[in-house]
Amino acid sequence: MPAPRKTALKGEQFEQNITKRGRASQGKKKDKYPVGPWVLGLFLFVVVGSAVLQIIASAQRGGFF
């Protein structure tokens, strides 16, 4: 007795999908940054601001050179 039509269609879909297994999509994950723009901006503000303040304090003490 032949397999019902629905079972045959599912089998065909399975056979077509077998070559695609285990492959992750490369689309959207590469475009995203690991941190948000606000966190990156805050980090840059703190790092650059502390460097500028350290340079100013060092210049006022006379220990620049």
UniProtKB/TrEMBL annotation:
Record flagged with keyword Transmembrane helix: yes
Skewed-composition ranges (Basic residues): 20-31
Keyword entries, A-Z: Endoplasmic reticulum, Membrane, Transmembrane, Transmembrane helix
Region named Disordered: 1-32
Cellular component annotations (GO), alphabetically ordered: endoplasmic reticulum membrane
Transmembrane segments: 38-57
Name of this protein: Stress-associated endoplasmic reticulum protein
